[in-house]
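Sequence only, no structure available. Ideas?
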Amino acid sequence: MDILAIFGDLSFAIVLIVLVLAFLASAIKVLREYERAVVFTLGRFSGIKGPGLILVIPVIQQVVRVDLRVRVLDVPSQDVISQDNVSVRVNAVIYFRVVDPEKATIQVENFMQATSELSQTTLRSVLGKHDLDDMLAEREKLNNDIQEILDSQTDVWGIKVANVEIKHVDINESMIRAIARQAEAERERRAKVINAEGEQQAANKLLEAAQILSADPGAMQLRYLATLTTIGSEKNSTIVFPFPTELSSILNTLQKDR
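Reply:
I predicted one. Tokens follow.
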């Protein structure tokens, strides 16, 4: 009987130790530096704990772990019709993090899915208000607009959208050829404008030179002699007969007298 009593007491002690260890295992939680525990007591929110070692009452308290690190969300390609009626496919990437674990757990069922769906609709809505040229040339502005809208709408979920980047704007082959033709026409237009501006500047300089030379007959004579020197220095078969400038002025005077 004594042996049975001893074994009975030993079994009871082992069971008690196992129950205590199981209780401690379920009561002790260790949270990493980037984790927080949203604690519910009898189904009601009772606080946020962590990081480090925390104690919870089994059965009475439940814990939901929330990761506070920055998350990267790849937005699937979206079909967008721009304001100038061009069909494009656009995809983007969003960087966000949880700043309020309580709201991220209580206010929304699945903040990852909710943020993903909201980002897709926002991407289509914002890009649909801009022309194709804006999508290609003002991508930084569009990124900021999308980021501000997402950040304001996810604030009630305890989410902070840090950055939005549009990765690709895909257009069909016919539109690519049209854009290439437009760019070529734009380059030709600029070349013609630059050529016309050069002709205008040259004409203005020639007019100024003519006015300066006509003010003094000696200047015209010097220019005439300089031209003869230039022609004579070249190896060519051109024959030049000098014509006195005074004779030209005399002929002009006689023609006026008639």
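The chain has a mean pLDDT of 82.
Hope that gets you unstuck.
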